[in-house]
Amino acid sequence: MRRLFPVTDETAAPAPGGGSGEGAGREWGLAELAAAYAYPGPGPGGPVPWLRANMVSTLDGAAQHDGRSQPISCATDMRIFGTLRALADVVIVGAETVRKEGYRPARAREDFAAMRQAAGQRPAPAIAVVSASLDLDFSLPLFTSPLVPTLVLTGAAAAPDRVAAAEKAGARVVTAGDGVGVDPARAVRALADLGHTRLLTEGGPRLLGQMVAADVLDELCLTLSPMLTAGDAQRIAGGPAVTVPHRFGLVSMLEEDGFLFTRYARAREAY
Question: What is the pTM of this model?
Fold first, then answer.
């Protein structure tokens, strides 16, 4: 792993054992990854929500292969995936992604236990599933046996029997919309009201597109996979285009084995 941006004296210096760049030629420790992906500090008035997304894309823009993201990922991408989860209060995910990717509850990581305790966090992040229809299998471990109760974000018009089924399974249902769907801005506020200000979404593309359109996304952690897949796979964000493209700034870029691990964020004084 090596750091390509921001450029520092360490970035440019030759690394022990060959190669160049900070950390080149060795695997970064989890503490180093946690520092590289740390959330912004609190604002003047205290903690404020910060929503980051973590996605992977091939060189030709595919976010999936055969309907899943795993085939275009790599071991280091998965280590960063785990680190981002360990830093978050809550992981927001769309119902379709839960079904396709076989989501399970987030687990406690001993390597991050002290860090989470010092930050006042639970042993593991909660999973928050966004679903208008609540067409979910509530017998899955995600709902019946999580370390931290799973949240279900839905609209006020959700079917009462499905709400009851979710609650019976042990999930906490959070209303984040006046109709059948979820308003992304209201979802962020509702999670913040529950004390979750370090927010992470893992998609899928439809959910991320809704967040982009609602202008609630603060940061994108994008892994660029050195693969070409062609085909008609989804991009990392789907749905209608925004009227004016949202421009983010590059925060950092790491590289390993041809994979680029980038962070882009909107401007924030405290960041």
Answer: 0.91
